[in-house]
Design goal:
CATH class of one domain: Mainly Alpha
Number of helices: 21
CATH superfamily of one domain: Multidrug efflux transporter AcrB transmembrane domain
Mean pLDDT: 82
Oligomer: single chain
Helix content: 40-55%
């Protein structure tokens, strides 16, 4: 075609175009985000509130219900759920459709929350209702420890809250940063009921006195206008403001008798202590108290699996390019011909990243896998050009004329192949839902690389072929002579074997053409076998993978104290650490796997595993280790414990398996709902494919 002839006569122009494509793709490569899979988890907005002293029923009726009534109907909202816990906290999670801008969703939810604020209890409004976009999974857990035990967990937690959390929040893409462990510093007033009764003082009087005397007031300015004539200076009045020490709080006057001058202070009614604001959650690293967010020590890091997966795909990509070079050299038996496809591959692969960045995609396992498959397509286009040029050179044409004739013969097929492949893969990008998110980036990656490959085959490849390839009568260069000297015998034997194989293949095809009915019968049998296996193979979304960590979950009976839960969690951590392949244990007594909310009778243990190169045996796989920990954890009494793998796709749940929620649509009451939960769990246990099942209702709450 004329377009190829144009670039054959202008090789520098063809090279410049390819260099531009390569450089643009290289720049985009360093700007693309990196992830394990495409963004398939729906964006979430989390609303948190505190109602100290209230039980879950009261929180649900006075806090959760008004908020849910206002949030309902927000644009692109899929569903929402809330959870109230015994420590007075409420967590409401609103989940939106895939593709929704989380910043816009957060703003709309905040506007709806503002409408509900007048209906909330006064203490809830004073503490504040927070709204933030969030990810349903933990990206990383960073532990802060004191190696010489100089600082306790309370100090470490508040240090992390003041000096570590804020810089982490400023990282681009950070959703939220949670600090687990002891609570923030708080001034606790412990009142003695006997002393209150003896002095006829109520707790309300104590609270009122604290609010009145622990206040920051605006004292004004001395000398401010209007002022007497001749005033020369103005001076701001600084007052003491809020109280800071235990002694200052203990000196607060609760009641004063003007007749005899006697006063009742807080120290007369109890004691004052600077301690944690909440004791609902603890954090343990290898059964040692630590603040989870150092010496800094990173133990739980799910992104390690992502890095390992991507490095393996890149390794596969490198092997594919080397195999391409080897195949080209063996079949074409000239190093000059191998250079052309080897130059075409980087241009097509790297140039693809520019379009991925434009479309808002990421570098993930699927896009890299698509590039691995696309290498075969890219190389095939270049080989078609080179092989056809070599064939025309063998017929006696010069490299330039051979290239012109070759492109007249193969330009049409190259364009047709690119269009056919695009017609196959591009429609997959319009598939909706979670599956569509996976197909889209994979299909578009192959389509883009195919188009760039076709462009290279019409521009760069013929230009290089006309320059690099030699005619039949031209002298051989040094590299060619060296290859013939050391590999000439191998090439001759390969050519003889290839000719015999080609002849045998031709004879086989000729023989098959005489038994058409038999061939069609075999073909129909293969189609039938394919359909049979399609229905017999178990379906699934994404295969379960070894992600280098396991999740241990403990559920104790209703009313179990945090100390009791901590004892169980410590025992589970000790058991897990003794299993070969387990590297560390990261434990959170008081943390529920359900939305990571605080429950005194629940706990989570993360078990980071050894690196893959240390776990080459089947007995050290994640599933085998989980089975061993579950078997040994059966000896723990008074708790329901199980260890399982994380979800195959981060963000779709907090653990492997599935999650089912029951809704009381007919308002039949809690007892009826509890009975339905028990019946549902019984049916799940009756399924032979189910291994473990737990509930956050009833006895497992």
């Amino acid at each position: 075609m004329d377009v190829s002839h144009f670039f054959i006569d202008r090789p520098r122009f063809a090279a410049v175009l390819s260099i531009i494509v390569f450089l643009v793709g290289l720049i985009a490569l360093f700007r693309l985000p990196i992830s394990e899979y495409p963004e398939v988890s729906p964006p979430q907005v989390v609303v948190r509130a505190q109602f100290p002293g209230a039980n879950p029923r009261v929180i649900a009726e006075t806090v959760s219900t008004p908020l849910e009534e206002q949030i309902n109907g927000v644009d692109n909202l899929l569903y929402y759920d809330s959870q109230a816990t015994s420590d007075g906290s409420m967590t409401l999670t609103a989940t939106f459709r895939i593709g929704t801008d989380p910043i816009v969703a957060e703003s709309e939810v905040q506007n709806r929350i503002n409408r509900a604020l007048p209906r909330l209890p006064e203490v809830v409004r004073q503490i504040g209702v927070t709204t933030e976009k969030s990810s349903p999974t933990l990206t990383m857990v960073v532990h802060m420890v004191s190696p010489d035990n100089r600082y306790d967990a309370l100090y470490l937690r508040n240090y992390a809250q003041l000096y570590v959390r804020d810089p982490l929040l400023r990282i681009s893409g950070m959703g939220s940063v949670l600090v687990f462990g002891e609570g923030d510093y708080a001034m606790r007033i412990w009142l003695d009921p006997h002393k209150l009764s003896a002095r006829s003082v109520s707790t309300g009087e104590v609270v009122s006195a604290i609010r009145e005397q622990n206040a920051q007031v605006a004292a004004g300015v001395v000398g401010a206008a209007p002022s007497p004539p001749g005033t020369v200076f103005t001076m701001s009045v600084n007052t003491k403001g809020r109280l800071k020490t235990e002694e200052e709080f203990a000196d607060i006057i609760v009641r004063a008798d003007t007749t005899d001058g006697s006063v009742i202070r807080i120290r007369d009614l109890g004691r004052v202590e600077l301690s944690a604001g909440t004791y609902a959650l603890r954090s343990l690293l290898n059964n040692t108290e630590a603040v989870a967010i150092g010496d800094y020590q990173i133990v739980y890091d799910p992104t390690q699996f992502v890095r390992t997966s991507i490095s393996k795909v890149i390794e596969t990509l490198t092997y594919a390019i080397l195999l391409v070079a080897l195949v080209v050299i063996i079949f074409l038996q000239t190093w000059r011909a191998s250079i052309i496809p080897l130059l075409a591959v980087p241009v097509a692969v790297v140039g693809t990243f520019a379009v991925l960045l434009t479309l808002g995609f990421s570098i993930n396992t699927l896009t890299l896998f698509g590039l691995v498959l696309a290498i075969g397509i890219v190389v095939d286009d270049a080989i078609v050009v080179v092989e056809n040029v070599e064939r025309n050179i063998e017929s006696g044409l010069t490299p330039h004329d051979a290239t012109v004739r070759a492109m007249q013969e193969v330009s049409g097929p190259i364009i047709a192949i690119a269009l056919v492949l695009c017609a196959v893969f591009i429609p997959l990008s319009f598939v909706s839902g979670l599956s569509g998110q996976f197909y889209r980036q994979f299909a578009v990656t192959i389509a883009i690389s195919t188009v760039i490959s076709a462009f290279n085959s019409l521009t760069l490849s013929p230009a290089l072929a006309a320059i690099l390839l030699r005619g039949r009568d031209e002298p051989k260069d040094v590299v060619t002579r060296v290859m013939e000297r050391f590999l000439g015998g191998f090439f001759r034997r390969f050519n003889r074997g290839f000719k015999r194989s080609s002849a045998a293949y031709g004879e086989g095809v000729t023989s098959i053409l005489g038994h058409k009915a038999l061939v069609l019968g075999v073909y129909a049998a293969l189609i039938g076998l394919t359909l049979l296996l399609f229905w017999r193979v178990p379906p699934g979304f994404v295969p379960q993978q070894d992600k280098q960590y396991l999740i241990g979950i403990a559920q104790l009976p209703d009313g179990a104290s945090l100390d009791r839960t901590t004892e169980v969690i410590r025992e589970l951590s000790d058991i897990g650490k003794k299993v070969p392949g387990v590297h560390d244990s990261v434990a959170f007594p008081g943390l529920s796997i359900n939305n990571f909310s605080n429950l005194t009778n629940a706990g989570i243990v993360f078990f980071p595993l050894d690196d893959f190169d240390k776990r080459t045996k089947r007995a050290l796989s994640a599933d085998s280790i989980a089975a061993q920990v579950n078997m040994r954890a059966g000896a723990i009494k008074g708790a329901f414990i199980f260890v399982l793998s994380p979800p195959p796709v981060s963000g779709l749940g907090n653990a492997g398996g599935f999650k089912l929620q029951l809704l009381d649509r007919n308002s039949m009451g809690e007892q009826a709902l509890a009975g339905s939960v028990g019946a549902t769990m019984g049916r799940v246990y009756g399924n032979p494919q189910s291994i473990l099942c737990s509930s956050t209702w009833g006895r497992c709450t």
